[in-house]
Amino acid sequence: MNSIGGDSFWLVHVPGRDVRGIDACGAAAQAASIGWYRERGIATAIPFRGGVAANTVAGTISGWALACEAAREMGGRLPLSRLLADAIHHAQAGSPVTRSQHVNTATRRAELAPQPGFAGVFLPGGQVPATGARFVQPRLGATLARLAAAGLDDFYRGELARALAADLAAAGSPVGLADLAAHRAQWRAPLVLEHSLGRVYNMPPPTQGLVSLLILGQLDRLGIERLDPLGADYVHACVEAVKGAFRIRDRYITDPAHMTVDPQSFLAPGQVSALAAKIDPGRAAPWGAGKGPADTIWMGVIDGAGRAVSMIQSVYHEFGSGVVLGSTGVCWQNRGCSFSLREGALNALAPRRKPFHTLNPAMALLSDGRTMVYGNMGGDGQPQTQSAVFTRTLVHGMNPAAAIAAPRWLLGRTWGQATESLKLEGRFAPEVVADLRARGHEVDVLGDFDETMGHAGCVLRHADGNLEGGSDPRSDGGVAAF
After folding, report:
1. pLDDT per residue over 312-332, tens digit each?
2. Same domain membership, residue 254 and residue 376
3. Which of 159, 180, 250, 274 is the most exposed, having the fewest neighbouring CB atoms within 10 Å of its CB?
4. Phi-psi category of 35—alpha, beta or left, where left has phi over 0 and alpha has psi -120 to 50?
5. Is the pTM for the entire model greater than 0.85?
6. What is the pLDDT of residues 190-222, one digit of tens each?
7. Distance (Å, rounded) from C-alpha 24 to C-alpha 57?
8. Cα separation of 361 and 277, whole Å?
9. Active-site residue, 296 included
10. 40 and 146 inside one domain
11. What is the domain extent for residue 284?
């Protein structure tokens, strides 16, 4: 459900150096315009599926390329062929279908099956593959092998680029060879929050990294350490901090080339304190609408020297646009459906404009010498779960696995949810649910370990070099040590 046809963002830390970010976000095609859609009878919103939804360049591979360059500068020795060998093997020899893949394929089958190339890969024999069945992607394996042999730049300016462009055109996408050739990943300075525990980093626009930092900043001002991390006061404070941060996001965050304000300015101590002061501890503030679902993976790593990476990669909705390119097996993203077709809108579609991204990888460098990389998938749920993982691990002292497994909440939509309610996992105590409803929250209670809450991960390095990690029991992830 998530492969090389999307975008990625990275935070990279080397002890003694400034944290750096990789922006591997692909821009809209040169042909993609509001007029282009109107010519095709599309005037109100960009569809989620099909070639017309595949309107931005997939930047992921360019992010891999910058990361490989950075690794070599740090003394990394593994060649690209080795880095891709396992992925090539699993694509060509197959890997077991997980429950998540099975459920999401079955749930989205009606809208995805008609999309170009989808059924031939994800519905073998015309059926939703069963959990545990072998899932094979030989064309994607060949594409990865091509990248290993020819280099990652081939995706944008080589034989592979020409194949991608031809298949995109056949699918009805506006993305062409010139769009691929024009794309470059960029090193970016991350946003930074001065927290009482140290410095917390996230990516700048077009991501919603500012939201994640604003939530943590407000909670720091509210004295979240005094609250029970499973109690109503804690959840209420977190949810209300989310609302304040989302209001800033929805008013200002877009392609940085089109922004009118400096996002770092919102993290000034006075600004964060003023935002926190608006929170009523006894009453829920009004809530509008969220940004919707996502299909994303997060990965984090810390090595023995303390070098740390937090990386997130996505094709946006489940299976992206649903378009699977015939000659390469690449499933292309639909990130550009977040553009507006309304002239003058904050995220109005325009040629070569970057789309708004829910993606945001997180990293914390603490004053006591600890380093933590953390993140999760799940659209609007990303900054919310980040606040849970950060506060429960670093403020309340839970180990990463326990912090991630603890019952979570979600305000708004994700994973196809249509409601904007406050969703709570069923493991919250009944009195917590009742208390939150009494404060004015519209509450829906979900399953005990519900995938709606997204998939989180965390790695924590202590000052003495000891490492801890946690992965989400709601997902297919894992923690590994070498």
Report:
1. 999 999 899 999 999 999 999
2. yes
3. 159
4. alpha
5. yes
6. 999 999 999 999 999 999 999 999 999 999 999
7. 10
8. 27
9. yes
10. yes
11. 188-293+357-471
